[in-house]
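Archive entry. Fields below.
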Amino acid sequence: MSTELNLTLQVWRQPGPDAPGSFVTYEAKGIPDDSSFLEMLDIVNENLIERDVEPIEFPHDCREGICGTCGVMINGRAHGQEKATATCQLHMRKFNDGDTIVIEPWRAAAFPVIKDLIVDRSPMDKIIASGGYIYAPTGTAGEANETLVPKEAAESAMDAAACIGCGACIAACPNSAGQLFTSAKLWHLNSLPQGQPERFQRVESMVHTMEQFFGACTNHGECAEACPKEISLDFIAYMNADYMKSKIKNRAKSAQI
Amino acid sequence: MLSPTTTPQNSGEKPMREKPRDLPFPLNIYQSAIGKKWVMAVSGLMLVGFVFAHMIGNLKIYLGQVEHNGVLDYDTDHYAETLRNLLVPIFPEGVVLWGMRLGLLAALLLHIHSAYTLSMLSRKSDNAYAGKRDFLAANWASRSMRLTGPIVALYIVIHLADLTLGFGIATGEFEHGQVYENVVHSLGRPIVAIGYIIANIAVAVHIYHGMWSAFQSLGINNPAYNTLRRTAAQVISGLILIGNVSFPIAVLTDIVSI
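PREDICTED_STRUCTURE:
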């Protein structure tokens, strides 16, 4: 038998990208403590619809912590206070009866608000797209173990590939820097044999795309704390090392321009 | 459903800034933020090396007067004289010292320029939260870098006027080459001594984050010794803090006097 919570929400409401936004206070009564944060917002929205109020738009999709669609600032922390937890996996039992919860969308100049809690995160897609392809032989399928992957490389790549691209790192960063996201996306290819042919081309183009949208890293470490997948700061160092290597390896190309 | 009016005007489709035209290698390194962080880290490590060596050299003040070639002399003055005569007679007097000074000046200017441009980049990229932020990892040192940095820059100017060039804030008794006496006269003024203490706390706090950050920026990362990076920053900044703050305190308490 679950207990019920009565909460006060301060939700960022903004009708559109160019409209001014502000916090609006809502009472959320009778929230079962077994519900997730997003289910709590569903319940609040049901009540708003009954009262003919425009429901709160919030980002969500799989609701099982793997798609990276959800994500809001909850009481000043990306994805709320629980470590390694996406907003959808944050449960209301982590809150106390009578709590006030402040809910705000991700903030970054490159993340314009579309409506209420939903922001446009397409700059992250731009970074991925600029990474290009990997060289993969087509035709007859090769032997399963033709390309040997050292265990350490496989694990490191897997740790980086855990990134779900939610944008919490950028939202949590005081500089709005995209370093953790970009470095994770780089490292899951750069650490593997299959990613080697385009490695340094990829580093340069993804970093340059990142810098067209986001700020400069000052190594606070907020990103790794906010990350629901616990992506490590180490990847940022690997990216920094790879970036300088790419500048040296690609130096002939830059001299021609 | 989103209504059609919500099509963003400033959508994420368009870059906020265009990539600049590539300069030839290696100048193109400095065109990117990550490259600037490399420059900031390398120049910062040069400056930390200087600050550390300067602090070690200044410890000679505690030796007081020492006999050199049968002449009783302040050891600090003798040390300063040695610095001017580094690698003499291979180089004329002062050349090596000036070479190091120009190297440090170049490092300082690059450090300040990269810090300024990256701060501006971050400022443009940031959208402040309307609600209260709750920081978890960012510590006092990392968040005050843009405050301690200008304090240190101002302190360098004042310190050079006070004890190297001898104008402005310098005492009336300033005499070039009389290092020990100049230090005792200058730090004998309580206001100046307190200023030096505050400035040196800022130096140490700046180095505490800067050292660790430099390892990250330079890509010096190996899980086997990553915890040592924080330790190195703590030890270096701690030694610099203790050493540098001890000088004004020693003069104020007459442990070091003429």
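CURATOR_NOTE: Chain B touches chain A through 67 residues (CB under 8 Å).
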